[in-house]
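Aim 2, interim progress: modelling of the T5A-bound target.
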Amino acid sequence: MIRGKFITLEGGEGVGKTTNLAFIKDHLQHHNIPVVVTREPGGTYLAEKIRHLLLDADSEDISEQAELLLMFAARAQHIKHVIEPALVRGNWVLCDRFTDATYAYQGGGRSMKASIIECLENLVQGTLKPDLTLLLDAPVEIGIDRARKRGAFDRFEIEKISFFERVRRAYLLQLELHPERIKLIKANQPLVDVQRAIVDTLRVLLR
Ligand code: T5A
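Predicted structure of the complex, ligand included:
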């Protein structure tokens, strides 16, 4: 059995990850590729419980270390029970956020050291890395505005603009560090143009 491909979607709040995930799923299925769509934090029973704790805006003050460890605890479950088995079955896995989000939010947003994140990444993932990461990028105000139109804010969405500026910069740094894996998609253009750019980028994997 040929191992499936692992594709992740990244970007700040409201840049269109969820919207485009459904589009990519349809596009891959059109090419007769079996796809598993999932998300982080989340994707298993336990990881979804952890997501709920992490996003709860009414939570007690969560320490940066606890937040980081909970992200990786959820990820460990997700890899073991969903991602790895699907890839081994030959399915492609399409995941709404993965470890680049940890570098962006906990590394950039919370200013935690990249070396600590890298340590946990090695522990939890071993050699597992996405084959392709689509980084949807737009000025912070545009994404926040789109996300906030949807209603109640979660524990991250209540952060200040400066937090999301750090998140965006950290994502762009990830792009600089891993140009072979991460591809930039400009998200502040009409959806049809965003999706055209996504189709172009996916061509490499579909060859
Ligand atoms: N997190 C996560 C960490 O801190 N560390 C980690 O390691 C991980 C994995 C998860 C939170 O957890 C944090 C980051 C997050 O704060 P989430 O729900 O996965 O939360 O992430 P959000 O960014 O909050 O997801 P959103 O649903 O808000 O944003 P999306 O999915 O990027 O945006 P989407 O597709 O819902 O679109 C938002 C709106 O914009 C419109 C859509 O129709 C929708 O109404 N839209 C466009 N409008 C015009 N033009 C376009 N091109 C458009 N694209 C979309």
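The beta strands are 6-11, 35-39, 92-96, 132-137, 182-186. Residues 64-88 form the longest helix (25 residues).
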